[in-house]
Amino acid sequence: MEEKQFGNLTWICVNLDENLDNQQLKTDLAIDEKIIAYASDVDELAHIDYHAKLERLVLVYDAIHDEKDDNIYATTPVTFILKENRVIILHTNDNAYLIEQFIALFESESIDSVYDFICAALVCISKNYFHVLERLNKELKEIREKLRKKTTKNRLLTLSDIEMAMIGIKSSSKQNYLVLEQLEDSSLNCPFFAGDSEKLSAAKIEARQILEMSELTAQTMAQLSETYNNVLNNQLNDTMKILTGLSILLATPDIITGFFGINVPLPDILTGNSWSWLLIIGLIVLFALLMGRILFWVFRQKT
């Protein structure tokens, strides 16, 4: 737990991945187990909760990881507990990088209230989304160019990882935008959460741009995935046709030689001369060359 003082604003950071005494958090910071539970839940949706009696505003906002986790950029919630002149931030190791960025806000911007800080902090979180989206778009462009040259399993898995990341980003950005709309709603009636409306509007604009950008990239991903799915299905159908034709060609000698047996003797030309075995080998080689020529023509037509 880390505490700092910026003017008349007290700023407390709590890393939930550290060994903490929940009873101490409850006693010293008035953080109950319910807040700790959903602050620790990586699947918790962004939302706000204002407790009028305690004059406390709890804001849960999805922040994106600055590094990949299992080849995917994931999101986890960061929780702000706001009271007049005090901000408590509950975070994890995955989004701990935000703390340094928040400290820089106090040093570079004029922050005189909880309202000023939270508006600046939400804009800061949004900018990290932009950086990740730019990386993903760059990766998408690179993998698309590689897939055009050659379709491989690893490249398709990379495409799938990008698509999974975009699904999470799109969901988080949508929920974050809804939270900002709730904050902008005058019915919140939070006495200490008031200030220049342009600051909150700026945070909302950033969140809206992220949502639109993620939706556009997700649509591109869906179209690209559908295209390669159709390509792979067509390749599979072509392969099955070739294998069917090959099976018929391979069955032809069996059909022909199947006529000969106990009741139908082999032709004299294959049994009556010492060089008959050479004739048989020659027929086999000729048949193999014929099949090779047919398969070569088929593959050439497909490519």
Indicate the topology.
Elements: E1 2-6, E2 9-15, H1 22-29, H2 33-40, E3 47-51, E4 56-64, E5 75-83, E6 86-91, H3 97-108, H4 114-149, H5 153-184, H6 197-257, H7 268-271, H8 276-302
Parallel strand pairs: 2-6
Antiparallel strand pairs: 1-2, 3-4, 4-5, 5-6
Helix pairs in contact: 3-4, 4-5, 4-6, 5-6, 6-8
Keywords:
Beta Polymerase, domain 2; membrane; CorA_cytoplasmic_dom; alpha+beta; 303 residues; single chain; 14% strand; transmembrane; transmembrane helix
Q: What does this protein structure show overall?
A:
A hairpin with a 4-residue loop joins strand 3 (47-51) and strand 4. This protein is of the alpha+beta class and 303 residues long. 62% of the residues lie in helices and 14% in strands. The mean pLDDT is 82. It contains 8 helices and 6 strands. It folds into 2 domains: 2-233, Beta Polymerase, domain 2; 259-302. It comes from Streptococcus chenjunshii. The chain crosses the membrane at residues 242-262, 274-299. Keywords: Coiled coil, Membrane, Transmembrane, Transmembrane helix. It is a multi-pass membrane protein.
